[in-house]
Amino acid sequence: MTVSTQDRPNDLYSSPYLVDYYDIVAPSSQSVDDASFYWKTYQDLKALRSSTPDDPFVIMDVGTGTGRVLHGLERNAAEVNADFSNTEVLGVDNAQHMLDKAEKTTTGPLEGHVSWINGSALDLEAVMRERVHRNTDLLIFSIGSISHLSEDGQPETFLNQVSKVLRPGTGRAYVSIYDGSLLHKKKDIAFHQPQGVTEIQSKVFPHIVYRESNHRGDLEGNIKYVKFDLKAVNNEDQTILEKNHISMKMRQWEEDELVSLSSKTGVTFVERIRGAHETFYVFKTTA
Ligand SMILES: C[S@@+](CC[C@H](N)C(=O)[O-])C[C@H]1O[C@@H](n2cnc3c(N)ncnc32)[C@H](O)[C@@H]1O
C-alpha cells in the first residue's frame, strides 16, 4: 500500500494504519469478554417473538468499528452451528476504513446477513430510511463508545434516535459505559497509555511499526482529552509513512448519569447490568 507522508485527522479510525493500530491496542473480545454477553442477550430477545423473512430479527451495532462485537456473535453462532436465518445484522460506523476492515474480516455465518453501513449514531433514522426492515430488536453501543458523543446534547440526541429505530415493546438497546470513563471511579482502570516512545509491530503491513509518544490524558470538567503522537514507519528504511497527532475528546460520566439523561428522551430505562469492566444500560422505547 502506498500512503504518502501527511498530517492526518485527529482520531484513531481514519486510515488503514490507524485501524490496524487500533485493533492491536484496543480492548479485545478476550480482554472484555462482552461477546458471550451479547450472544446470550440476542438469544433471549430472539425468543420473545418469532422472526420471519418478512419481519426478521434486526441487530444494529452502532460504532461497530472493525466489527469486533458482531464477529464475536459470529464465533458464538459458529460454535453451536447456529445461523442467522431470519436475522438481519447492521454494523454502523462513521469511519469508512473501520468498516472496510470489518467487511474484509467477515468470513463466517454472518456473510450474507450483515450490512456494513457508513452512518452516524446521531442520525440512526437516516440509516434506516433506505431499509426494508426498520425495527431494531437489539441495538448495541459497545465498550463505552458513547464517550465519543462528547458535545453537549449528543448523548440525548443519540437516545432519541434510538427511540426512533427500536422495535416498540420488545426492542432493547444496550449502551455500555466503560469503568475507566467514570469520573469518580473507585479504582483506576488502565488504558493503553505507555510512557516514553513505544514501538508496536503491525499485524497487517509487512515491515511497518507504529511509534507512539507523548501520551497524555487531560481532564477538563467531564471531558478527557486523549492525546498522543503516532507514526507509521517502515522499519527497513525508516521512512515515515504517516504522522498522526491523535487528540480525542472523550466524555466521562457520573455513575448512572445516563439514566437521568434518558428521562428527557424517547427511551425508558429498563435495567443496568454489571460487566467485568463496564456497565450495560438497557433501554426500550417509551410507550
Ligand atoms: C471504541 S471504538 C469501538 C469499536 C467496536 N464497537 C468495539 O467494540 O470494538 C468506537 C467506534 O465508534 C465509532 N464512532 C464514533 N463516533 C461515532 C458516531 N457519531 N457515529 C457512528 N460511529 C461513531 C468510531 O469510528 C469507532 O469505530
TrEMBL record:
Gene3D superfamilies: Vaccinia Virus protein VP39. Residues 59-169 form the Methyltransferase domain. This is Methyltransferase domain-containing protein. It comes from Penicillium nalgiovense.
